[in-house]
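Risk register update: the risk of archive-format incompatibility is retired. Evidence:
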Amino acid sequence: EAAASVLLLRAGLALLAWPVYLLSFLGIWEPFCRKVFFPFFLEKISGVHEKKSKKHKQELFRNLPDFRGPSGQLRLLEIGTGSGSNFQFYPTGCRVTCTDINPNFQEGLSRNMKKHQHLHYEQFLVAAGEDLRQVPSGSVDAVVCTLVLCSVHSVSSTLREVLRVLRPGGAFYFLEHVAAEHSSWTYFWQQVCYPTWKLVFAGCCLTRELWKNLEEAKFSELKIQHISVAIPWMPIEPHIVGYGVK
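Archived output:
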């Protein structure tokens, strides 16, 4: 019965979003989404999400300086930097390498770099989380990834790359939205929205149980907390936050 309701409501939602489906069929939506819509939307929504998640992020990144390398420097790589909303949480002198699969965030990124001159920006790489071949193995002290694992093609390949580029004893920090409790209304709506949401928001998957991927990855130590960062009318809830040590 629930499955039938999900399919019916999915069809209704697809009907409402038919222009997007049509543009996608014609091959117009993807490039427009990557260049214009997604960067614009992400900047708007990340403002709201930032306010809601700020205290969680401050708490999360508090022990970043503990992972400085033997040289005393902290070399940090961020996967899916977007426009750089995490820069404010990084410690002074931190050497940041930014990566994103989408090069169209430059405007917001430059603005945030100017605002946060307490950091050294090493380089910006156009790269997917699953393929960080431009980054040498064992070359960074920390990897950061927030609201990105929902849209990578392969979570396990991305986590393998994270572990490859981290030095032994380095840490991977994450804050991600995940699937809700299966018996909940939120999960019901996540299933309803899933196909249309994924199309409209550049491959974002609402029902990933990312804590399972993290538990399966080969971290020597893993701290995961299930938290709530509720945004009204958004099915991206609940969240997990924490870090894993290589």
